[in-house]
Design a protein that fits this description.
With 136 residues, the protein is of the alpha+beta class. The chain contains 3 helices and 8 strands. A hairpin with a 4-residue loop joins strand 2 and strand 3. The protein is globular and about 40 Å long. The chain starts with a strand and ends in a 5-residue tail after the last strand. Bound molecules: zinc ion.
């Protein structure tokens, strides 16, 4: 695992949280993205090397919707950048961690991602992410 790439925060109202986090961080989001597979709208802020990803659910059966229902708004996941997501997934599996998918998925912000079940990580949802290299 390399650096913490971003921290995901589940919010009920993306526009209200945009205003709040813009004030908090004294900067504006650099990207807004809809991720259909996860049922979320996202906003990304940059704070030095680490990003903040705000997540608002777009449907009542999405993972973020059920997270907010159970635990309220707040930190949803921590994402670590990895150099080789397949190798890291294999390593974690061999260490007994439960992965939420067998293959990396296309996530927001041009990343291949995979989640580690919070039950195997002290209640913290962990995301692995690797930048998708686009051929020149
Ligand atoms: Zn994320």
């Amino acid at each position: 695992m390399l650096n913490i790439e971003h921290i995901g925060i589940a919010v009920k109202d993306l526009m209200a949280s945009n205003t709040l986090f813009s004030k908090l961080l004294d900067s504006f989001p650099y990207k807004e993205e809809y991720v259909e597979s996860e049922g979320v709208k996202t906003l990304f802020f940059k704070t030095g090397q680490t990003k903040i990803e705000l997540l608002e659910s777009t449907r009542s059966d999405s993972p973020v919707a059920s997270f907010i229902e159970k635990r309220g708004e707040g930190i949803h996941h921590i994402a670590f950048e990895v150099a080789d997501i397949w190798a890291e997934m294999a390593r974690l599996k061999s260490e007994g961690f439960v992965l939420l998918s067998d293959e990396p998925k296309k996530g927001a912000d041009n990343k291949l991602i995979c989640f580690v079940h919070p039950k195997s990580a002290n209640g913290v949802l962990i995301e692995l992410c690797q930048e998708i290299q686009t051929p020149e």
